[in-house]
From TrEMBL:
Keywords: DNA-binding, Transcription, Transcription regulation. Belongs to the LysR transcriptional regulatory family. It comes from the Bacteria. This is DNA-binding transcriptional regulator, LysR family. Residues 1-58 form the HTH lysR-type domain. It comes from Meinhardsimonia xiamenensis. The keyword Transcription regulation applies.
Length: 298
């Protein structure tokens, strides 16, 4: 049995389809299918049950999955040891994050980490949803709620603040806002209610709003709408420096605090490359949040 066959097997097991595995491996789905058929013939057993819903592991497939993941960790560990001996952090790290964090925090943080480690390739996946680390969608993820299930390790990174905000032009052309009661009748920018993927992002009750007049599942799209004067919305304080004429509204009355958590697969604690990247992230992200939030107070 070759490692390359196990690599293909892992991709099919994690993505539960030939097409999903093919996208990750950059192989034609038919080629992936032939590789799995060849592996099953070599082992003399059936590894997957095929159905219209996808590829599900058999009992023997589950057994092989555990061994294949051990082999994967061994290969990754060996590569990391060689890179470490050369005095550099190399290879690839993929980090998933909510799109607010991915747009306004991770680019500058990862740019600095990358500059210090020229052999390291960093991939930032910005998606407004929860990442599935068991399917290896990312090596690690930043979340706004700590997961309660799965073989995961979770570390709190930092708290961050959010406030109601609007563009100065919107505030000039609309009735003044001196209290929560004055918010009635103002237009609200926020999340599409049925696409909120984490309860920590449901801000409507906290600002007393009953309706979202302009909605998006994307934080940058919401901020862009607020910047264009579309209405009031909850904005991360660390994003305000990227929208200079957007200002906080009722900051003493409406102030929210949320947290970022670093989530990793439990098996990856032996991967030195990921440990070192995580350590750099845990140091840099709180500092960057603090720096940007301080700019809004100036």
């Amino acid at each position: 049995m070759h490692w390359d066959d196990l690599r293909v097997f892992l991709a099919v097991a994690r993505h539960e389809s030939l097409s999903g595995a093919g996208r990750v491996l950059k192989l034609d789905p038919a080629t992936v299918g032939r590789r799995m058929q060849r592996l099953e013939e070599a082992l003399g057993t059936t590894l997957f049950v095929k159905s219209p819903q996808g590829y599900a592991l058999t009992v023997d497939g589950q057994r092989l999955l555990a061994r294949a993941e051990e082999a994967e960790q061994a290969v990754i560990g060996a590569a990391d040891e060689l890179a470490d001996k050369a005095g550099r952090l190399g290879g690839q790290v993929r980090i998933g994050a909510p799109d607010g964090c991915a747009n306004y925090l991770l680019p500058q943080i990862c740019a600095r980490i990358g500059a210090e480690n020229p052999d390291l390739d960093i991939q930032i996946v910005a998606l407004p949803r929860v990442f599935n680390l068991s399917k290896r969608e990312a090596d690690m993820a930043i979340a706004v709620s700590p997961p309660s299930s799965g073989r995961l390790t979770v570390q709190k990174i930092t708290d961050y603040q959010l406030h109601l905000a609007a563009h100065r032009a919107y505030l000039r052309r609309n009735p003044p806002i001196r209290s929560r009661a004055d918010l009635k009748g103002h237009r609200i920018v926020g999340y599409i209610p049925d696409m909120i993927f984490d309860r920590e992002l449901d801000y409507l009750d906290e600002i007393g709003a009953e309706r979202v007049h302009l909605a998006s599942n994307s934080v940058p799209v919401q901020l862009a709408a607020i910047r264009e004067g579309a209405g009031l919305g909850i904005v991360h304080d660390f994003a305000l420096p990227f929208a200079p004429r957007v200002v906080r509204v009722l900051p003493e009355e409406i102030a929210l605090t949320r947290s970022f958590y670093l989530v990793r697969h439990a098996d990856d604690r032996r991967v030195e490359r990921l440990n070192r990247f995580a350590a750099a992230l845990l140091e840099a992200l709180p500092a960057e949040v603090a720096r940007l939030q301080d700019m809004t107070k100036a």
